[in-house]
Specification:
Helix content: 40-55%
Strand content: 5-15%
Largest sheet: 7 strands, parallel
Oligomer: single chain
Strand order of the largest sheet: 1-4-5-6-7-8-9
Order of helices and strands: HHHEHEEHHEHHHEHEHEHEHHEH
Number of helices: 15
Distance between the termini: 33 Å
Number of strands: 9
Structural class: alpha/beta
Radius of gyration: 19 Å
């Protein structure tokens, strides 16, 4: 399904009202009879949740696959632990030494459960034709950090950069292949989740994340395919590095002040964020409504801002609190 994503983005920037694109999938399992394990292993069931989400919350401006952060490492051969109604988690790693890195093979883009996500896009496109569909995948440093112990990945940027770059080369090639497979399946873009890069210094982020993200963007982004780069760290000093990747959208977590981010990012790209997912889950509706309203007021002078969660909203979040977000946006837009 083709969308001119350049026009889509510009229409959002030019619009008087504010738009909504949360990282919302797993809480919406409640709209179906499925548990997490059902949809991360079955494309049709994942697509049913994607479609049900848009039907329930039509103000969301794009459908999105489930954000399963294990599926890329699993394709490389990493073991994954599944629970009935919680997101999958990694049960082991693959790389500790340079020898391990050299043995690591770039997987087939259809390895493991990757086809679940592509096929979910295909199925969703049969039902959702009035807005773009995004696939979810990891960013390069976050994938590399899933292939080895996290502390090793962080220390390797200082003490073993050659090893780190060796893993990043293979992670990046896989992520290019995966984004191209999403594109072939009919997706209109990807949300590139790079949360672990938020733990790096600005200099290390440039060397071990942004330059590799740029390679992915250069390989896949065009007028019909839109890359949104997500980093939920304290990234105020990384804005230039992130922008220089060439991505056309940037999604921020709740570690940063959204208005300050908007001031630092050029207005020719979309900027998404950043209601704390823990607050969406835990706050009383009235308190959450106040948080949402403040966010919208604080960012009112930035036409490229898109209202969103700061990261993936927890599976146990109530649908009532999701409705608070959509109702808050509707109330704000009525005052414009």
């Amino acid at each position: 399904m083709y969308f001119n994503m350049k026009e889509w983005s510009q229409e959002i920037i030019d619009a008087k009202d504010r738009r909504f694109l949360p990282v919302l999938y797993f809480p919406c399992l409640k709209l179906t009879e499925y548990k997490v394990i059902d949809t991360v292993t079955d494309a049709k069931k994942m697509a049913e949740v994607m479609v049900a989400t848009i039907r329930e919350y039509p103000s969301i401006i794009g459908a999105m696959t489930g954000m399963d952060l294990t599926v890329d490492a699993e394709a490389f051969g990493a073991p994954v632990r599944f629970k009935k109604n919680d997101v999958p988690c990694l049960a082991g790693t693959l790389v500790e030494t340079m020898e391990d890195a050299e043995k690591l093979q770039v997987p087939d883009p259809h390895a493991g459960r990757l086809d679940v996500h592509y096929d979910a896009v295909r199925e969703t496109a049969k039902e959702i034709t009035d807005r773009p569909i995004f696939g979810g995948q990891l960013g390069p440093f976050s994938l590399a950090a899933n292939l080895m112990p996290l502390m090793d990945a962080l220390m390797n940027t200082i003490h073993a950069p050659t090893l780190m770059h060796a893993v990043l080369e293979k992670a990046t090639q896989h992520l290019i292949n995966r984004a191209l497979a999403y594109k072939e399946a009919g997706a209109n873009g990807v949300l590139l989740a790079e949360p672990t890069a938020g733990l790096l210094s600005p200099e290390c982020c440039e060397e071990f994340s942004s330059q590799y993200v740029k390679r992915i963007v250069d390989a896949v982004q065009d007028d019909g395919f839109f890359v949104i780069l997500h980093n939920c760290g304290n990234v105020l000093d990384m804005c230039d590095s992130m922008y220089n990747t060439g991505a056309k959208g940037f999604h921020f977590g709740n570690s940063v002040d959204m208005a300050e981010i908007c001031r630092r990012m050029p207005q020719d790209v979309l900027v998404f964020g950043n209601i704390d997912p823990a607050e969406i889950f835990s706050l009383a509706p009235d308190v959450l409504r106040e948080k949402c309203h403040k966010q919208l007021i604080d960012t009112k002078n930035f036409p490229n801002f898109v209202f969103s969660s700061g990261c993936d909203i927890p599976v146990i979040t109530s649908l009532e609190n999701i409705r608070v977000m959509t109702d808050s946006l509707e109330a704000y837009n009525k005052q414009l």
